[in-house]
Amino acid sequence: LERPEVPADATAVIAAGARKPFLEPEVKALRAWLERGGKLGVYLEPGVDAGLDALLGEWGIEAGDDLVVDPSPVSRLFGGSASTPLVAPTREHPATKGMEGTGLAFPTARSLVALTAATVPPFPLALAAESAWAERDVAGAFSGKPIRQDAGERRGPFPVAMAASRAVPGEPAGREARLVVAGDSEFFDDRYQQVLGNLDFFLNGVAWLGEQPDRITIRPRAREGSRLFLTEAQVSAIRFLTVDALPVALFGLGLAVWLVRRSR
After folding, report:
1. In which band, very low, low, confident or very high, does the pLDDT at 79 lie, cut at 50, 70 and 90?
2. What is the CA radius of gyration of the chain?
3. CA distances from residue 56 to 31, 135, 206 in whole angstroms, order as listed
4. DSSP readout, 113-181?
5. Cβ–Cβ < 8 Å for 240, 232
6. Percentage of the chain with pLDDT > 90?
7. In the prediction, which pLDDT does 142 show?
């Protein structure tokens, strides 16, 4: 709100996990940024109106007012609930190059729709599985209410992440505005970024936005230190065994050996 436009030297703008709607001056600045050939990444959350529906609609993308649910056992491995669907990157787009066969875990995602009236159709980047559906009772699902697929709810596969690009009129050939939209913003936070291909998917999308194709890659897994969290009772038990019981047991064993040898 302090500046009427996106800074000209910005490589890309990322709008991730908005909890309140963008104000009209902010939406206007983002629209003008895209018209000048800007790059925008929008990462949404179900049940939240980010105030960007009109802007996304101009690019042929509509975010469903729903929650993607996948009851398959594989999805429950990563989020513990059916609202963490396992989705698959597509392989025809530069942002997902080399990611075929890599799963993604999208906790609490909403579905996306490609509008048929779009001048330049958006391209799907990730699809929900065939076992998934778009649950329309978002509030009920978040409250723990038992959910099941009802008539009229979308069945997978359908997009949960999309990309679009447009040539900029009056600009040199090859210059284009780019947009990435995902129905989830939590898949790359501290809890989920190391799950499956989540971090690669996010970073590759940002690299595509910033026109940095050399950074679109599958990164080697970094080996991290393992952590073990113990309760106070477990710490006390370990201290008793190692500091008290074990020395006494060794002393008793040594004394027994000495007595046996002395008796001989």
Report:
1. low
2. 26
3. 10, 21, 18
4. EE-TT-SS--EEEEEE-TT-EEES-HHHHHTT------TT--BSS-EEEEEEEEEPTTSPTT-EEEEEE
5. no
6. 55
7. 87
pLDDT band for 226, please (50, 70, 90 cuts): low
pTM of the model: 0.79
**Nearest Cα residue to 198 out of 79, 105, 82:** 105
More confident of the two residues 143 and 38: 38
> What whole-number distance in Å separates Cα of residue 111 and Cα of residue 119?
21
- Distance CA(74)–CA(78), nearest Å, equals 8
Q: How many CB atoms lie within 10 A of CB 70?
A: 25
Model pLDDT for residues 97-137, shown as the tens digit of each residue: 889 888 999 999 999 999 987 778 899 999 999 999 999 99
**Nearest in space to 198 (alpha carbons), one of 114, 115, 78, 117:** 78
CA–CA dist 196, 142 (Å, integer): 24
The residue length of the chain stands at 264
- CA 76 to CA 57: how far, in whole Å? 32
CA max distance for the chain: 105
Residue range 14-52, pLDDT digits in tens = 999 999 999 999 999 999 999 999 999 999 999 999 999
Phi, psi of 206 (to 5 degrees): -65, -40
Which segments of the chain does DSSP mark as H helices, in order? Answer: 24-35, 53-58, 73-79, 138-142, 198-209, 232-239, 246-263
Write out the two tokens for 163: 């990309």
